[in-house]
Amino acid sequence: MIENENIKTLVKKFYEQKLAHVFLIETNDKKALLKDILAFVKILNCPEEYEPTCKKCNLCHLLNTDSLPSLKIIFPDGQAIKKEQMEDLKSAFSTVPYLTRYNCYIINDAEKFNNSSANTMLKFIEEPEENIVGFLITNNKENVIHTIKSRCEIIKAQYETKASQLIKMEIKELAEQYLYKLEVEKSKSILYNKIILDEKLEKEDLCSIFQTILSIYLQRLHGITLENNLTKLNLLSQENIIKRIYLVNEIIERLNYNVNVNLLLDYFALSLEG
């Protein structure tokens, strides 16, 4: 199954017959993107309506075992993508595919085209064949040679990495702990602000904390019962919840400007106590 939403849109374009012939895809996770592209190639070439569990033909097996003649996956040869690699690709796709609808190619690290390979590639994509679809993968589209980039449909495919998942968990825990101190242990709220600041959190992290706090208040507004240390918030009236939502939105907005963070956090704590 395709994970990334932007790659899923290609399926819709395919069924609407609006598919481009070459895509430049910028991503933060090349491995995850390659998996999604291969899933899309299965959909492109399925002789019937694609189902992941279907075993009516051996197309998926050939693709999974890197044995499909009409799919070429290219990695840089050393430090660069070489001219010879592009010539081999052109030669391989000079005929109509006999097992699939499309000849498909995937070029990893598209920022590593050199001038020779880029010129050869340009001749390949400037006169596109209807039965060829290409995918160029990069972690930074700005590093891709302009002449190549200008001839591609550009897509961004971001993935949630394990590191980002961990950061989200830490932010959630910090937000819940911070809210507990302010809403339950109100007498320590100003003091706890200093602890937050001593952790040397960036403004971006503080914004994420307040976004999480906002989502907690919104849960209560929509009638969701809070658990663990935040059960006291279940006793708040709708009026007080709405006031807190306005307050948190104000904090988030002001964090985007050059403000004194110490004073802003104290203002937040005092507003909750008032």
Question: Would you kindly provide a brief summary of this structure?
Answer:
With 274 residues, this protein is α/β, with parallel strands linked by helices.
Keywords:
274 residues, alpha/beta, Rossmann fold, Zinc Finger, Delta Prime, domain 3, 2 domains, 51% helix
Question: Could you please describe the fold and organization of this structure?
Answer:
This protein has two domains: 5-157, P-loop containing nucleotide triphosphate hydrolases (Rossmann fold), CATH 3.40.50.300; 162-273, Up-down Bundle (Zinc Finger, Delta Prime, domain 3). Helices cover 51% and strands 10% of the residues. It contains eleven helices and five strands, in the order αβααβαβαβαβααααα. It has a five-stranded parallel beta sheet, covered by helices on one side. The longest helix has 22 residues, at 162-183. It is elongated, with a radius of gyration of 26 Å.
